[in-house]
Amino acid sequence: MTGAQQNGSARTAPEGLTLRAWEDGDDLRLLEVFGDPVDVQQHQDRAMLAASSDTPWRRCIVAEVDSVPVGAAVVYASSLHPQRLWLYVETAASERGRGIGSALLDALRRIVTAAHAAGEVTTTALKSRYGLAPEDTRTVAEGEELPELDLESHAERAAQAEATGGFLAARGFTRIQRSRRVAVAARSVALPTLRTDQTPEGVSLEESSTGSVELTRAVAAFYNGVHEWDPAEMSLGQAQQMLLGPDTGAAGAVVLRDRPGADGGAIRAFAVSYTAERQEDPADVLLGWDPELEDAEAQQAVADLLALLVAQHPVQIEVDDSMTALAPIVDGLLTAGYAQVLADASVVATA
């Protein structure tokens, strides 16, 4: 969520403000006033802005001042997370603090209330997220100099995050999660012992088809297990559709077992790559584990698989605070200077 007014108090919308439904071409019109997204998260959030629909249920509106688009907002229902509706609001930087964000949010809340009364949606609870200014935890190769931090840009993002957080808090939103995208440097985690004839106590690393039923079950169980804060109902079909199928960009997968699958070894941790070819940037990887493992076992499995993933090349992973087997490992790498926060967000929701 971007472009909240600078404090939590209500403001009168500017003269000439009108709200209308999303129209074809609004994405290009708004890009002219919004500018380029500041990070991957904002790029993803803007992709939510689209024409209203009933299946899936989505309502999107645009704010205009004197017939010029200056903001937009969307709310939509997700069958995967049915307890809350996703909300995204953005206003042009030059128009912030004038009450446009409030007008958009208030309008969507009225729409949601009416839709709930009509039985079109099952809830009026909302959730949103806004970017935080990442901490300066950049990594650098030996012998190179650390690039200078853009203090002005960092200060602007910190101020915007504070303003947006205040705006949402004043409207009944409270924090329910922190979500980060983190790059982990190559050779930053101690390698585990792999299982061989000489080391039968070692872990077993195996490639897996992204269409594997076993992997699909593991992915769905993991996703549901780490989303108790926003209960998920991911089915095997949704796991394929959203995380593993051809349209997701999934390029390959590996699984970690305590013994080979042929000997009955169960998946303890898995990694799905969304980077088809080797490149300079860290490969995009989904890292997960068996939620039925004890905490210590899960953390060890995650550490072992992460070590194998970064044995030669860096990776980037998503880390929510609810991922209790992964978050402590990542925090340790950040503290030691072996990881870098690429995006940092606070997820907030109404009661």
UniProtKB/TrEMBL annotation:
This is N-acetyltransferase domain-containing protein. GO terms for molecular function: acyltransferase activity, transferring groups other than amino-acyl groups. Pfam families: Acetyltransf_1. InterPro entries: Acyl_CoA_acyltransferase (IPR016181), GNAT_dom (IPR000182). Residues 17-198 form the N-acetyltransferase domain. PROSITE patterns: GNAT.
